[in-house]
Amino acid sequence: MSLSASNTDNDLFHRIARGDERAFEELFRRWDRRIYPFVLKMIRTPALAEELTQEIFIKIWQHREKLVEVVNTEAYILTIATRHTLDQIKRQLNESRMLEKFSAIRPLSHNDTDEMLLFRDRAALVQQAVDQLPPQQKAVYLLSRQEGLDYDAIGRQLQISPNTVRNHLVKALQSIRAYLHDQDLLPTFLLTCAFLLVKK
């Protein structure tokens, strides 16, 4: 039995606050396609926008006990989406600046070369994860991540529906994350921090 469309977002918020997973699924269904383009306008990368959209809803669920206090549900959801996306942009900028600092410090020493190899190894492992994807998932991932195409453009190129494109991309991202997790990899950002601390 599905939740009635007469349930307002406030109704859903109160249900979610009590741990109602069906209410959370309904909220996701209502807001998923609104949050994704909202995030994409800021982040400009379809695959990353998809990841961030999922993370935004995870944040809502993780802090569900606060939902009973929310009056304006739309403002609450968009505020979380904005803050989470801006945090990601800041992380990317910080990583970019640190890498610039890394490359400008001095000619590579033996230890510097070791750290650069760590970065290259990580990139190689990501490529290994991509190479192990099923053909359709791999094609969708590459068109989204490398070509920057949206769901409609990918769908036209592969002759599948945008919804199928989305499903393939979500599964591809999950597989890649699982592969990297199995390798016990540190994020590139942490590796960069470790390198800069050694240099001081």
Helix count? 9
Q: What is the helix fraction of residues, given as a range? A: over 70%
CATH architecture of the largest domain: Orthogonal Bundle
Number of strands: 0
- Say which CATH homologous superfamily of the largest domain is assigned: RNA polymerase sigma factor, region 2, helix turn helix motif
Average pLDDT, to the nearest integer? 78
Shape: globular
Order of helices and strands: HHHHHHHHH
Low-confidence segments: 105-116, 185-200
Fill in the CATH topology of the largest domain.
Rna Polymerase Sigma Factor, Chain: A
> What's the alpha carbon Rg, rounded to whole Å?
20 Å
Oligomer: single chain
Helical/strand content category: mainly alpha
CATH top-level class of the largest domain? Mainly Alpha
Largest sheet: none
